[in-house]
Amino acid sequence: MSLRLATFNVENLLTRFDFTGFRNQLRQDRVIKLFQVSSEGVYQQLEQARVIAATDDTRQMTALAIADADADILCLQEIDNMAALQAFEYGYLFRMVGNGYRQKYLVEGNDSRGIDVAVLMREETRDGQKIELREVRSHAMTTYRDLDLFDEELALTNRIDDKIFKRDCLELDLLIGGRPFSLYVVHFKSMGNPRDELDGRQSTMPIRRAEARAVRRIIEDSFGAGHTGKKSFAICGDMNDYQERVDVIGRRGAGYRFEHHDEAESALDVFSHDGFAENVVRRRPALDRWTLYHARGPQEQWLCQLDYLWLSPALAAHNAGRLPEIIRSGQPYRTIFPPGQEVERYPRTGWDRPKASDHCPVVMTLDLP
């Protein structure tokens, strides 16, 4: 019996328009900056036309990436609401690809932009095993005080009664062909602006570290501390942090070289330092683990993994030797691939946009013990 499990940050699957760019230039789309727009009403009309025109190509590519992942259970990030998820699933996954998802789960979380985590599930796995939901739980309301996770680092930017998860930790208690399986879907705090001589990653790391500790505590409270290793669980999502990266050195026209190095610290060390869970993407070659290309000019460009399938020790051991897949055909042409990793992009993919997402779906076929 096998289960295909995937995670994918689809980026801004929204059902609303953002008109704040008329008054806040930092929020204004780059194409509208090319034109002089003096009326807010005209700006709103242009913004609506721009978004609608661009969205169809974008969502076709998003659907193609999901179709290539071909997951039985799909964990998603950056979903506006259930209406957006239903419209996308029916209009793109089902109508365009021909294979949709009947089971959909989303609980409104804490993100100030209103983007949430969600789960799509088939009624059966590809080999006919029933997928049953026993219980779904949101941990969006859990505070630092609740789990006794508040510390001096967090006190610089947070209060003790603030919510831990900046989106949510969505917990699903499942039966797959009658076998128990627990799923935890997250989207950790994004890397913010530099603060106190720390870069954006370092300045926000205490929040992500607390989120990782909270996920671990939730799992340990469920199964019992010291007893989690023999259980079947997975932690999936965009964790906005990495334990290693590949620096891309060079510029277009002159060529590139790629240098891999490990990070001195990461919020994700909470999962890995004592074998609590395994990041199975690390089974792939060092230059072939990335799920996102980051670039701010030729002096700051790298490939890194932000999207994860963390498996419990028992589940990882039961699937020893298996490799996860990373779907990169929806990446824009500006993404720099190491030699030998080039893929055929989806039709109408642009230099920067349209694209499926800046993130790549990660998927793995698992046997449950």
UniProtKB/TrEMBL annotation:
<dbReference type="Pfam" id="PF03372">
    <property type="entry name" value="Exo_endo_phos"/>
</dbReference>
<keyword id="KW-0540">Nuclease</keyword>
<feature type="domain" description="Endonuclease/exonuclease/phosphatase">
    <location>
        <begin position="65"/>
        <end position="359"/>
    </location>
</feature>
<dbReference type="InterPro" id="IPR005135">
    <property type="entry name" value="Endo/exonuclease/phosphatase"/>
</dbReference>
<keyword id="KW-0378">Hydrolase</keyword>
<protein>
    <submittedName>
        <fullName>Endonuclease</fullName>
    </submittedName>
</protein>
<dbReference type="InterPro" id="IPR036691">
    <property type="entry name" value="Endo/exonu/phosph_ase_sf"/>
</dbReference>
<dbReference type="GO" id="GO:0004519">
    <property type="term" value="F:endonuclease activity"/>
</dbReference>
<keyword id="KW-0255">Endonuclease</keyword>
